[in-house]
Write a structure and sequence with these properties.
globular, Butyryl-Coa Dehydrogenase, subunit A, domain 1, 93 residues, mainly alpha
Length: 93
C-alpha cells in the first residue's frame, strides 16, 4: 500500500471517524486532562490501531504509510489535541 490512491479508503474512514469527535470533545479532554477513551475505542473498532501489526497477529498489516496517513489525518482533524499524540503513543491494538 504505497500510493495515495491505495490509502484513500482508509483516509476517508479516518475523516468520518474524526468528524464524530468535534472540537468540544477535544477541548474537554485537554481541559480535564483525560484520556480520549471513546476516540481510541472508535479507532480500535474501525481497525485503525492495528495497521502496523501483521495480520497473523491480529492486525491489518497495512504498513507505515497507512499508519502515517492515519496519524496525520487524525491529528489535523482533532485540532492537534495533546490527547491524539498521547493516544498514538500509548494505545494497544
Amino acid at each position: 500500500m504505497d500510493t495515495t490512491n491505495d490509502l484513500e479508503p482508509i483516509l476517508e474512514t479516518v475523516r468520518r471517524l474524526c468528524a464524530a469527535f468535534p472540537g468540544e470533545y477535544w477541548r474537554e479532554r485537554d481541559r480535564e486532562r483525560t484520556y480520549p477513551t471513546a476516540f481510541v475505542q472508535a479507532l480500535t473498532e474501525a481497525g485503525l490501531l492495528g495497521v502496523l501489526i501483521p495480520e497473523e497477529y491480529g492486525g491489518s498489516g497495512l504498513g507505515l504509510s497507512a499508519a502515517c496517513a492515519i496519524l496525520e489525518i487524525s491529528s489535523t482533524r482533532t485540532r492537534g489535541s495533546s490527547c491524539v499524540s498521547g493516544s498514538a503513543r500509548t494505545s494497544k491494538a
